[in-house]
Design brief:
By secondary structure, this protein is α/β, with parallel strands linked by helices. It contains four helices and six strands, in the order H-E-E-H-E-E-E-H-E-H. The termini are far apart. The mean pLDDT is 88.
């Protein structure tokens, strides 16, 4: 038996519960915001209201960035640590469409999500 799941980030805790296949696709995270705003990095979201889908890479990364340790990743020049203040509000959503509704209503400033679903969501919402 096999079960497929999109939007499930591989991490050590999940590896104990799920037998993941080899990675066949890797995505880039993007920041979706109102047209008059341009947030080009995680650091730019410091102190803002940020939407993420529960349990996704965006959720894990934004959440880690608000801790004392910050979010670390391997950059071109070695390890990079990004920290944003814990005054950053994280709204966790079951679906990106709900986050988009809050973004359009001005209840959040940005959404951190994978690029492909972001492109699809924005194309459909126009």
């Amino acid at each position: 038996d096999a079960v497929g799941a999109a939007g499930l980030t591989i991490n050590e805790e999940r590896k104990d519960m799920v037998d993941f296949s080899s990675i066949y696709y890797s995505s880039t995270l993007v920041v979706v915001s109102a047209e008059d705003k341009a947030y080009s990095s995680l650091k730019a979201l410091d102190g803002l209201k940020v939407g993420v889908q529960e349990g996704t890479s965006g959720d894990l990364i934004v959440s880690a960035a608000t801790t004392a340790e910050g979010h670390s990743y391997e950059g071109d020049d070695g390890e990079v640590v990004v920290k944003i203040s814990d005054s950053t509000t994280i709204g966790r959503y079951k679906q990106y469409a709900l986050a988009l509704a809050d973004l359009e209503a001005g209840r959040i400033d940005a959404i951190v999500m994978d690029k492909l679903p972001a492109q699809t969501m924005l194309a459909v919402s126009k």
